[in-house]
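Slide 14.
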Amino acid sequence: MNPPVTAAPGTRDGAALAQLVGDALTRAHGHADTQDAAEIRAITDAMVRLLIGAPLHSDGKLTIVSLATEAGLRRNKLTHKHTGLKDLFYALVKARTPVQEALPDSVRARAAKYQQDLARVRAERDDLRGQTQLLARIVHVLEIENSKLQETNAALEEQVAVKSSVPDLTRRRRRP
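Slide 15: predicted structure.
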């Protein structure tokens, strides 16, 4: 078994509680149904990762779908079989103190600046994507025009070649 987890202050309290409940449920099931114990362990470990903000297998959102993905289980295992764990997860998510309220002003200001920087970088990325698509269309049009000009040039060269094989009798002068 895993060693008992001590509750850390702040947002980790819910994670520690999820770990403790998972340990208790696993011990309560014993070894009678190791599949259930493994599922409970996977769900509680996934709860801990999501609640502390360190997901390994999901998008990190605090939803049942993300929890199931993080645990490597199908969603119906949480909605039908382990409903107590689902309810615990919802309660822990609801009880979480918003991170913004717990942060000092300097950290909050830095986070706001990072959000602005992220928005600016995303806008630049979207603008560059648009420019890239426009340039790709321009290159495509130029390639088409180039191939048409090459065809026209080939046709003109063929006409010149045909004309050059016929002697120009008007330019020849007779010697007296």
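Speaker note: The radius of gyration is 36 Å.
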